[in-house]
Write a structure and sequence with these properties.
Strand order of the largest sheet: 3-4-7
Largest sheet: 3 strands, antiparallel
Shape: elongated
Oligomer: single chain
Helix content: 40-55%
Number of helices: 20
């Protein structure tokens, strides 16, 4: 394959949406597979809506996902600048070229006039097409009017008949009737280029070989091809990726949960889980498997594997996948991610770092997100203030409940080595001496130590809490169990 150059070109007017992140991922995988280059270009020509905070947020989100770029606003390359706001002189050059060649013209029609024409077309149930009122204005007259203070737009002269065919690497050949394309605007009255013009100039100037982008841009492609042809430039290859839909197949929005990379990060998802999930949203290698390493994705990725059908967003599957990666992650890594919040909640002091890491190791395979770990393991750091209601009825309100809890207390008091192996051996031996099942001691101990009926292994819990804390909590549980009898 010839030298591959692809680009991810977000508009810095908001956060990095998962749809944009998936587009970035597909471009990144394509570039890495074919040893090409990925260009990051910020399409910030909408000065009013664009912001530096948004640009930095998008770049931060990409880095968090592990997606790097070879050229961009912060990585020097041969084809910059990589912000549209820094390329105005480049656009002006090619706008002037189209004007001089008679392929574009200044349009002075007022917004009121155009609105009236569109309304008339709507009432007549006809497709609106700009009538070309200003096509006959000479260049000298147009320049005079501009000098006199008028601010025209620039329109491209579109063909009025024939069919334009987009050769799409995912969708095949897609035909568009030129009759439906009016003389579209390529520069606004403030001098800034429109999206369709700027993107053509940028992609050509940056030697982009493949334009891999969202399906919503397919309708723009005919206009861009006409501009390529008018400027005498070779076309890149186009590939339009299907939309991501909500579970009800409506447009994905915030009402369906987190939709930006920053939100997923803040809610406790791991970047490798999100990358794995996004890769499978609309792409398949043909293999029946869910979990992929980055190197495997690079090796297997191809545009042929991208589906033409919309992908359906499934937060449950993402949670399941995140739980898998969370379980496999090191406790040290996850503890670092939770460090600030754990300090804020008082779970970590200067002398309890090791305990916190041990708790993370016990709890992380029981949750779906990092943020759930602190709540899931809160009883390791806070006194038990209440007991599970069903657990109380089952383990604290039976006739022999106090007796069993006192046996558990004695077990803790007499244990010389408070380790997982020793505690398990001693408890099972004690149960055998009492002629009961080990579970008859384990379940009351679990409820006494955590207030819950489900925890990690009880011997691991006991070891982390330590002998004195276990004795104190079981004593409290005995008093509570005995108080239930008097009610």
């Amino acid at each position: 394959m010839d030298k591959i150059r692809v680009r991810f070109a977000p508009s810095p007017t908001g956060t990095l949406h998962i749809g944009g992140a998936r587009t970035a991922l597909f471009n990144w995988l394509f570039a890495r597979k074919y040893l090409g280059k990925l260009v990051l270009r910020l399409e910030d020509s909408d000065i009013r809506r664009s912001s530096e905070d948004s640009a930095l947020g998008i770049m931060d989100g990409l880095r968090w996902l592990g997606l790097d770029w070879d050229e961009g606003p912060d990585v020097e390359g041969d084809f910059g600048p990589y912000r549209q706001s820094d390329r105005i002189d480049i656009y002006r050059k090619y706008l002037d070229q189209l004007i001089d060649q008679g392929k574009a013209y200044y349009c002075f029609c007022s917004s009121e006039q155009l609105a009236a024409e569109k309304e008339a077309a709507r009432l007549a149930k006809a497709d609106y097409r700009y009538a070309g009122h200003c096509q006959t204005i000479s260049k000298s007259e147009a320049e005079e009017r501009i000098q006199n203070g008028e601010n025209p737009v620039i329109r491209f002269k579109s063909p009025t008949d024939g069919v334009l065919v987009v050769h799409d690497l995912i969708r095949g050949e897609v035909e568009f009737n030129n009759r439906l394309l009016d003389d579209f605007i390529i520069a606004k009255s403030d001098g800034w280029p429109t999206y369709n013009f700027a993107v053509v100039v940028d992609d050509y100037g940056m030697c982009i070989s493949h334009v891999i982008r969202a399906e919503e841009h397919l309708s723009n492609t005919p206009k861009q091809i006409l501009l390529y042809q008018a400027l005498g430039w070779e076309l890149p290859q186009f590939a339009h990726v299907s939309m991501i839909l909500a579970p009800d197949r409506s447009k994905l929005s915030k009402r369906h949960g987190a939709t930006s990379v920053q939100e997923f990060r803040d809610e406790g998802y791991l970047p490798e889980a999100l990358i794995n999930y996004l890769a499978l949203l609309g792409w398949s290698s043909g293999e029946d498997r869910d979990f992929w390493t980055i190197s495997e994705l690079i090796e297997r990725f191809s545009l042929d594997g991208i589906s033409r059908s919309p992908a359906v967003y499934d937060i449950e599957k993402l949670g399941w996948m995140n739980g898998h990666y969370l379980s496999a992650a090191s406790a040290d890594r996850i503890a670092i991610m939770l460090h600030k919040e754990a300090h804020r909640r008082g779970f970590i002091s200067d002398h309890s770092e090791d305990k916190f890491i041990r708790v993370v190791a016990l709890v992380k395979n029981r949750v779906k997100t990092i943020n759930e770990i602190l709540n899931e393991g809160s009883y390791f750091f806070e006194p038990v203030s209440s007991y599970d209601e069903k657990g109380c009825k089952k383990y604290f309100q039976k006739e022999n409940s106090s007796t069993l809890l006192k046996e558990a207390l004695k077990l803790c008091q007499e244990s010389d080595f408070f380790s997982v192996e020793n505690l398990e051996q001693e408890l099972r031996q004690r149960a055998e001496e009492l002629n009961i099942k080990a579970a008859q001691l384990i379940h009351p101990i679990r409820l006494a130590l955590s207030g819950r009926t489900a925890t990690p292994g009880i011997f691991e819990v006991m070891e982390v809490l330590g002998k004195n804390e276990c004795i104190d909590r079981i004593n409290s549980a005995i008093l509570y169990a005995e108080s239930l009898k008097s009610r």
